[in-house]
């Protein structure tokens, strides 16, 4: 035997017909940064709920405002003549935060979703900062990328020009905690001193990470 308590809320304007007029867009960010999603509903809206992987994380009620239950999920609100925009901000994103972000309304029940991809910028290095090579001698230069997500794309450059992919071999391996490693070996026969650059890139990086090595050419005579 138990008593069930039912709460009724009266929300004025239930007769209004409103809808989502601007859906959130997919976002790719680096771990440790903030991710932002915008959802715009038309005039007359009542309740807007943000869900992360199916779980409610923030609710916005008209006209009271946002109900925030976690410091990691906050919001900013913008009102215009066309409607109301709620911006969901996810702070200090981690790799495990990758998933589905959903904007949902009530009366009528409508939802729109986007996906968050959190990427990790790992380390990149060439073991030797300088190398010496003599005439007609082939040199192998190793570039190592550790603890990235996803595994980075590796490229090589010399004198501001990309080196043909046939000159190097890149292997990828699974690291720990869902992270990835990459090992790239460049094979060259030089005729002059050159500065070689290894570049590692993922979508969330504004510019590829790079590591350089100076290969000093010594004439055998």
Automatic annotation (TrEMBL):
It comes from the Eukaryota. Pfam families: I-set. GO terms for cellular component: bicellular tight junction; cell surface. One of its GO terms (biological process) is cell-cell adhesion. Gene3D superfamilies: Immunoglobulins. PROSITE patterns: IG_LIKE. Residues 12-107, 108-214 form the Ig-like domain. InterPro entries: Ig-like_dom, Ig-like_dom_sf, Ig-like_fold, Ig_I-set, Ig_sub. SMART domains: IG. This is IGSF5 protein. It comes from Pampusana beccarii (Western bronze ground-dove). The gene is Igsf5.
